[in-house]
Write a structure and sequence with these properties.
heterodimer, A: 163 residues, mainly beta, 3-stranded antiparallel beta sheet, 1 helix, 8 strands, 5% helix, B: 73 residues, two-stranded antiparallel ribbon, 6 strands
Chain lengths: 163, 73
């Protein structure tokens, strides 16, 4: 089986449960629990997976090491994903949030083909957020840079679209 | 210019002068991504010793929020 992309089904439920906080801004503070004050947010990470993996939005609920890449310059668990304050926005009829910086690994050698990025919440039990596919790649003594799309309706990395 | 390389059989990344290497560049674009890659090969035998890739994700994945309706009796 191949890896497939999408917002993880478990993530959609967890949003309704108030599990994930991407980037608190100066928004509402008259809420509980206490973490919903300005500036507090969870830490998210991005991990890479082999093209031979079988991750899917319906079955992937948390970060795991099965099919994760390994090699020089890559630390298991991946890299921290940055969401700057105010990055969660509304656009048209959508709520959008996209990492505010590229993900980059340097001095990297990944000899086995990989094609998937998993974004997950390391502050909340490594719960999965979304899977993103790209063309199968290998890296040799080099740099991998993943540049994020525009944070707006139709392009945001994570979008909840109203009808 | 020195280029980071991993020579065949080597565990460590070292550096080589670019003049001993053949540089190749390329890329492609589709509906979901823009990819640019750079490769360096040994001039002597063509072995790949460096590959870097830059991927721009074009868009993510929207979840459509649907409101339910009340049903009459």
């Amino acid at each position: 089986m191949a890896n497939t992309a999408g917002l993880c089904t478990s993530f959609l439920k967890e949003l309704l449960q108030g599990v994930h906080a991407f980037c608190q801004d100066s928004g509402p503070t008259n809420v509980t629990p206490a973490r919903a004050s300005a500036g507090q947010s969870d830490t998210f990470k991005g991990a890479l997976y082999l093209a031979s993996g079988s991750l899917s939005p319906g079955s992937t609920t948390a970060y795991g090491t099965t099919s994760e890449v390994s090699g020089t310059g890559y630390t298991a668990g991946g890299a921290t994903v940055t969401y700057a304050a105010g990055q969660a926005i509304t656009s048209s009829r959508s709520g959008c949030v996209t990492p505010s910086a590229s993900l980059q690994w340097t001095g990297l050698t990944l000899s086995t083909a990989f094609d998937t990025l998993l974004i997950y919440n390391s502050s909340q039990g490594n719960r999965a957020v979304s899977l993103h596919n790209f063309g199968s790649q290998t890296i040799t003594a080099g740099t991998l840079t993943l540049t994020m799309p525009t944070n707006a309706a139709g392009t945001a990395l994570c979008e909840l679209a109203g009808q | 210019m020195l280029i980071d390389v991993q020579l065949p059989g080597a565990d460590q990344i070292t550096q080589m002068d670019e003049k001993f290497l053949l540089k190749l560049e390329g890329g492609f674009e589709d509906a979901t991504q823009i990819v640019k890659w750079v490769q360096y090969h040994l001039i002597t035998d063509g072995v790949l010793v460096h590959r870097s890739v830059a991927i721009t994700l074009k868009d993510g994945h929207p979840a459509i929020a649907l409101e339910g309706i009340f049903q009459g009796e």
